[in-house]
Amino acid sequence: MASAIWGWHLEALFGTAIFALIKIGFLLGPGGPSLLIGLLAISVWQIRRIRQQLATQLLRARARRLVAKALRECLVVGFDGKAPRITKVFDTSIGYSFRLLMPPGLHQEAIEDRLPELEAALAIHEARVLPV
Q: Of 23, 27, 59, 85, which alpha carbon lies 20 to 30 A from 76's?
């Protein structure tokens, strides 16, 4: 359960921050929440570096959740029931590349045997397993 919640930690942080801004905004008067949320949205939109970094982090988090879900659906698990953990996401020219940390008892061959199923679950054309 904790891993499912951790996958959404960035979105939960944004939700908590917006909730706090709304609560603080009520102290400013009837239009306070709208004013604070609007100022935050405008500042995030106008500062290109923050906007690009935020978009990159959200896209990587989405890709990480999709791959973790596909690994669970395709039953890629070790002897103790643990699935591989995504440790790093790399941007490539055609998509993403993921570095997986394999749990004890699970090897590269287990994922290679499930590649057709993983490709179908992720709706991708090709998946490769490369040892590091």
A: 59
CA distance 101 to 82: 11
Beta bridge pairs of residue 97: 90
CA distance to 33, 64, 97, 99, 103, per residue, from 89 (Å)? 36, 7, 6, 7, 18
Q: Which residues are CB-neighbours of 104 under 8 A, at least 6 positions away?
A: 78, 79, 80, 82
Question: 66 and 119 in contact (C-beta within 8 Å)?
Answer: no
pLDDT tens-digit series, residues 110-121: 788 888 888 888
pTM summary value: 0.62
pLDDT band with cut points at 50, 70 and 90 for residue 45: confident
